[in-house]
Design a protein that fits this description.
The protein is of the alpha/beta class and 478 residues long. The chain contains 19 helices and ten strands. It folds into three domains: 84 residues, no CATH class; 140 residues, no CATH class; 199 residues, Rossmann fold. The strands form three sheets. A six-stranded mixed β-sheet has the order 7-6-5-8-9-10, sandwiched between helices. A two-stranded antiparallel sheet has the order 1-2.
Length: 478
């Protein structure tokens, strides 16, 4: 059938690339003008008949981080769908499938009983998985979606579903046969079986991805690429809302927030080192200039005592902001590893110091668990009470905030209609060197329901911080 190529009209290649670059940018991946120009240059140096070469070439100039690759691959499959050589050359030959799906399989599947068709396809899938031919597997996925993935017709067109294909073929039940085939009669166990199991896992994942890509391709042909892209793309790790993060997002978010925290700590360290020179020592400078004919080639400055930066973090760890507090406490951990003057306090309806849980090298997830189990953050019913928490802090640690202290409050400001404790907070802000409040809720929700964020914003700098990208923006403005 020829090499796999992007099914794109050659005459509209430049405009097609422009649409693809725009889609990548709209997905949250920053793409500048120079990168767009480089992408156009890629079209002149790669083999356009080799789809994977084009995929990797464009990725090399458009992406900055590995975390952006999954979203990029989804968009690439939508804008550069799999075709065959005859589609690109404009041939009208085919065998009945307008999308070219049936033309890409050599399997002879008779019509009639659906169970018989599924069984034949299942046997072919087993053979392809054993061979490990990725390209043949992608062609088979197109054929399987065409035969098994159709749903009920609607006025808007034919719908296709990946789960129908996976349910009919049940590829996960082929694992034992695949292992037996890959081991070739060798004894089970040991390194050989581990390698075989990993190969089976990767090939099954490749088939599932191929099915999903084909479903997206057919849906895009019916409903448009832009609509499918909006529903198919997951937010990038730095754009996932802290309050909506799922368990599957936690590890990636942890990898995203950790470098941001380290950059903040490093910059504060550099700023502290650069500020150690005080005023010009005129007498020493003049005395040293006598050796150079009165020209002050070297200047001398009076030493200045630079205080270590002090940071106090007040973090709401109630259930409503559990995801947000996890990642802001990670920020506290990174700062704690660079400065001894960082103190962390957690609260729900009472306040307790949790600095002891963030010793250098401590695991953040373990620290969060210990806070929930050991810290004295609940005094009454376990519902957020900012007013009482602020009063407990002011009463137990009156000297924690001073003129050398930066105050950072982390929470959504929802008080359960209890006293917000504005006077206590205002006094802490007045005594601190600087004060900021990071709120994980959208600005439009501040002041709605039991939220006192708008009132808190009158006495402290309230900053919207819903994801890692906004956290990074906040850090750059400090």
């Amino acid at each position: 059938m020829g090499a796999p190529v992007p099914a794109v009209e050659p005459g509209g290649l430049v405009g097609h690339l422009d649409g693809f670059v725009r889609a990548v940018r709209q997905a949250g991946i920053p793409v500048g003008i120079s990168q767009a120009v480089d992408a156009a240059e890629i079209l002149t140096v790669v083999d356009l008949l080799d789809r994977e070469q084009l995929r990797h070439g464009l990725a090399a100039v458009l992406l900055q981080r590995a975390a952006q690759r999954p979203a990029y691959d989804v968009l690439f499959d939508l804008w550069w769908p799999l075709g065959d050589r005859r589609e690109v050359e404009g041939s009208d030959e085919g065998d009945g499938d307008p999308d070219g799906g049936a033309a890409e399989s050599t399997l002879d599947v008779p019509g009639g009983d659906a169970a018989e068709v599924a069984e034949l396809l299942r046997a072919e899938l087993l053979r392809l998985l054993l061979e490990g031919d990725d390209e043949a597997l992608r062609r088979f996925a197109r054929h399987a979606v065409a035969l098994l993935g159709q749903g009920q017709s609607s006025p808007s067109g034919q719908s296709f579903f990946g789960y129908r294909v996976m349910r009919a073929l049940s590829p996960d039940t082929l694992v034992s046969q695949l292992l037996a085939g890959l081991l070739g009669g060798s004894e089970r166990g040991g390194l050989a079986e581990q390698v075989a199991r990993q190969a089976v896992k990767e090939r099954l994942a490749a088939f599932r991805d191929a099915v999903e890509a084909e479903v997206r391709r057919r849906t895009a042909a019916e409903k448009g690429r832009e609509k499918v892209a909006r529903s198919a793309l997951k937010p990038l790790a730095d754009q996932v809302d802290f309050l909506r993060a799922q368990q599957s997002d936690l590890a990636e978010l942890r990898r995203t927030v950790a470098p941001v925290a380290r950059r903040l700590a490093v910059r504060l360290s550099a700023r502290r080192r650069m500020g150690r020179q005080g005023r010009l020592d005129f007498r020493k400078t003049v005395r040293a200039s006598l050796a150079t004919g009165g020209v002050p080639v070297v200047t001398h400055h009076r030493p200045r005592a630079v205080h270590k930066p002090e940071l106090v973090v007040l973090c709401d760890v109630s259930g409503s902001v559990a995801g947000f507090s996890h990642f802001t406490l990670m920020l506290t951990q990174a700062l704690r590893e660079h400065f001894t003057g960082v103190r962390a306090f957690a609260f729900v309806d009472s306040m307790d110091e949790v600095t002891r849980f963030f010793r250098p090298g401590a695991d953040v997830a373990d620290a969060v668990t210990r806070i929930g189990r050991e810290a004295d953050v609940v005094a009454f019913d376990g519902h957020s009470d900012y007013g009482n928490a602020f009063e407990v802090f002011a009463d137990r640690w009156p000297a924690a905030v001073g003129p050398k202290t930066s105050l950072l409050v982390l929470g959504d400001g929802r008080t359960n209609y209890r006293r917000p404790g504005l006077p206590v907070l205002a006094d802490m802000v007045r005594r601190s060197r600087s004060a900021h409040w990071l709120n994980p809720e959208p600005r439009r929700q501040w002041g709605t329901g039991d939220s006192a964020a708008d009132r808190y914003g009158e006495v402290i700098d309230m900053v919207e911080c819903r994801n890692a990208a906004q956290l990074a923006d906040f850090i750059t403005t400090l």
